[in-house]
Amino acid sequence: MLATMQANLYALGAIALWVALASLGVALKHIPPFLLTGIALLMGSLLALPFVLKDKRHWAIPAKTLALGIYGLFGFHFLLFIALRHAPPVEANLVNYLWPLLMVVLAPLFLPGVTLRVVHVLAALLGFAGAALAILGAADGDASGAWAWGYLPALGSAFIWASYSLLTKRGAPFPTAAIGLFGLVSGLLSLLCHWALEPAAALSGRDWLLLALLGLGPLGGAFFLWDKALKLGDALQIGILSYLTPLGSTALLILVSDRAWGWRIGLAAVMIVGAALLGTRAR
Fold first, then answer.
1. What is the mean pLDDT of the segment spanning 156-163?
2. Mean pLDDT computed over every residue of the chain
3. Which sequence spans correspond to the domains of the chain?
4. CA–CA distance from 103 to each of 121, 234, 261 (Å)?
5. In this predicted model, what pLDDT tens digit does every residue of 225-267 receive, in sequence order?
6. How far apart are CA 186 and CA 146, in angstroms?
7. What is the dihedral of CA 36, 49, 21, 65, to 10 degrees?
């Protein structure tokens, strides 16, 4: 019971940091996305340095484990950026937020001994419906409704994050500080993509400050907290809790942009919190 409570707190900590991702992304939208991600991931990896300097074995992990980390951190962001380039961003973001639902329904396939109950599926679907209401309701008519092939990499990014999250519970144990190595290699690969695919960009002092916040928070600290949550907790319950991310992110965007609060956000909040409570009671 105590471990479950600790896991939920770690998950909520990661979610709280991810809530700021969209707002920071808007403030840094003039920076090419692979450059932004590369710098932020490298900064986030610095959080592991105190542990690595104390004991280098924290990064002495098998190549298979490192490959899993690169698959999760780099693969997720790579496909997401491809999706945002080739599909309407509102709908692409919504497709990407299928990952908590995929995490719930795929858990029995990835994790031995995990049983999926109807109540889990209902909670996950209720959470996704709430996320859809929050995201599309905040779009203010920006949603196009048109088909674009970019939805496929958005779905791929959702699958990668869901499967990565589940596989970290299934594979050989590794120290949470190894997340820093995942971020370091993924950040370097992102910078390589920037060099190959994007124009050069000059960064101001304000940009570097916001990049530090992004790296230490949504693209750094959140990954460490997420790993701790998955190591301690129930993947099904954590997946359902994750729908608080698009709700909080949308609410923060509305707050910082001084836009009006609509009824959709309130209803989305009720649906997502209801899904989280339903998922908790499913235990």
1. 94
2. 86
3. 2-281
4. 11, 11, 30
5. 999 999 998 888 888 888 888 888 878 877 776 666 677 777 8
6. 32
7. 90
Burial 203-232 (b: 16+ CB within 10 A, else e): eeeebeebbbbbbbbbbbbbbbbbbbbbbb
- Reported as a single tens digit per residue, the pLDDT across 12-51 is 999 999 988 878 887 888 999 999 999 999 999 999 999 9
Q: For residue 67, give both structure tokens.
A: 């490959």
pLDDT for the residue numbered 13: 96
Residue 203 CA to its chain's centroid (Å) = 25
CB 226, CB 17: distance < 8 Å: no
Among 44, 38, 152, residue whose Cα is nearest residue 92: 152
Decide: 263 and 31 in contact? Cβ < 8 Å. no
Least confident of 7-11, 63-67, 164-168, 259-263: 259-263
| DSSP line for the chain | -HHHHHHHHHHHHHHHHHHTHHHHHHHTTTS-HHHHHHHHHHHHHGGGHHHHHH-GGGG---HHHHHHHHHHHHHHHHHHHHHHHHS-HHHHHHHHTTHHHHHHHHHHHHSTT----HHHHHHHHHHHHHHHHHHHHTTTT-------TTHHHHHHHHHHHHHHHHHHHHS----TTHHHHHHHHHHHHHHHHHHHHS------HHHHHHHHHHHHIIIIIHHHHHHHHHHHS-HHHHHHHTTHHHHHHHHHHHHHTTPPPPHHHHHHHHHHHHHHHHHHHT-
Separation between Cα atoms, residue 136 and residue 107, nearest integer Å? 28
